[in-house]
Amino acid sequence: MRRFLILFLAALCLVPAGALGDAPLPEALRVHENVETQTLKGSVYVNTAYPATASSSVDAEMRLLLDAMREKALPFLPSKAASKSEGAYLDVQPSVYRTGQSYMSFLTTAIIRNSRRQTYVDYDARTYDMADGRRLTLADVVDGTGMDILAAAVREQLDAYFPQKQADAAALESLCTPEAMEAAGFTMNTAYLVLHYRADSLYPGQDTLMHVRVPYTDLMDHLTEKALPQTDNSDKMLIALTYDDGPVVGRTMRLIRNLRAGGASATFFIVGDRIRYCPDEVTLAHDAGFDIASHNWLHVYRGSNRGKVQLYRDKLNEKLGQVTGSQVRIMRAPGGSEDIFIQEDVHLPLIHWSVISKSKDNKVTDPAGEARRLARNAKDGDIILLHDIYTGTDKMALTLPGLLADRGFLCVTVEEMFAARGIELLPNEVYWDTRGNESKH
To answer: CB neighbours (10 Å) of residue 60?
Structure first.
């Protein structure tokens, strides 16, 4: 009997951690945010989200940062909102990313929105080792050659922003000097090291941010001894929350705020023709570090797209490029009907889903109950389909990230999840999950 027990325990040690069953995220990686709201005159609101982590010193540093960013932004608030019903907002909030056993990053933005336009943006990007509360520099993560790889990525990716405009060449080079690279703000998620920049540093008049992401696989031979094991996330359970059919005035903003408060990232599959109604919602998602993907230019099905697939793709990219400077890298076909997009070579990876959120008449009637159901049934590698156009979806995000964290999940973007699993997303291929598309429903 003892021999069998020893063999069983030995076999158990060989099973990946994610397959052992539910275990909450370790304390070093747990986070939630407490949002404090001030109501000013003229339907003007100020929201400040303070992270609560396992490190009191990190919490204190972040509180000082958030308060300073809020005070810096307050003079730029309008005296009253352009629309009383929609309000004007200053949101000061971090997006949180985690990797390895103890690295936690914060992309903090201060954003003012009024009259469906983003009128102000400020940011800070930083990474901590939560084991000791120490803030990291890029030199703590990569060696000299790694710095050169990052600088090359900065040149290439920032120059590709805003396709209709020309980047300031001298300003771009100044961002790539060794001194600038060593001082650059960065975050680290489960698959990428990401550097963050103001768009108007290269493209005057563009009040948005730009993100340069470099996969760990490109840096693997140039990570420091301490950083290398922190890029290993093979023991993590990952899940991708995806939101279709937006953007939606107000609701997308609240959804983003709630997701960030729960430490969750997500992917927004937007309908291109809807950008004109609320471009600020799209800009907010992009600047907060969420992924923007295609749900077609129009939300039409099958034959209605015949002969127009590439036209619709290009129209969406043109409009998105005007607003955020970026282009889509993945797509979800309306209704999940991918055939026409493959036949006419949309030339984007096509993202299906393995789980769909329940709704009735475009409403999530029990947001808390639906969050519990989704979290209870979640599996590593799932892609969950939700809709920010549906009433109640934003309220579901108040609890869903925390419930998933209680089971050991990190909520990441689609591209991050596949990259972390070493799966290349190919044009015109359909993906349901990271388990080899085992869930085709």
So the answer is: 11
Cα angle 74, 78, 81 (rounded to 5 degrees) comes to 130
Which structure tokens are listed for 57?
């010193």
CATH fold of 27-231 = Heat Shock Protein 90 (3.30.565)
b/e code 257-291 from CB counts within 10 Å (16+ = b): bbbbbbbbbbbbbbbbebbeebbbbbbbbbbbbbb
Tens-digit pLDDT profile for residues 100-147? 999 999 999 999 999 999 999 999 999 999 999 999 999 999 999 999
What whole-number distance in Å separates Cα of residue 408 and Cα of residue 21? 9
Say if CB 135 and CB 105 are below 8 A apart: no
Q: Where are the domains of the chain?
A: 27-231, 237-431
CA nearest neighbour of 118 among 34, 201, 198: 198
Q: What is the mean pLDDT of residues 216-232?
A: 98
Cis peptide before 247 (omega within 30 of 0): yes
By the 10 Å C-beta count (0-12 exposed, 13-18 middle, 19+ buried), 77 is classed as: buried
Residues 6+ apart with CB under 8 A from 220: 228, 231
The single-letter code of the amino acid at 417 is M
Q: Which residue has the tokens 């929105």?
A: 113
- For residue 249, report the phi and psi dihedrals to the nearest 5 degrees: -55, 125
Closest CA to 264 of 146, 54, 96: 96
Q: How far apart are CA 325 and CA 331, in angstroms?
A: 18
4 Cα distance to chain centroid: 46
Question: What amino acid is encoded at 108 in this protein?
Answer: T
Three-class secondary structure of residue 184 per DSSP: coil
Predicted structure pTM score: 0.94
Check if the beta carbon of residue 292 is closer than 8 Å to that of residue 286. Answer: yes
Torsion on CA atoms 299, 302, 304, 308, rounded to nearest 10: 90
Domain 237-431: what homologous superfamily? Glycoside hydrolase/deacetylase (3.20.20.370)
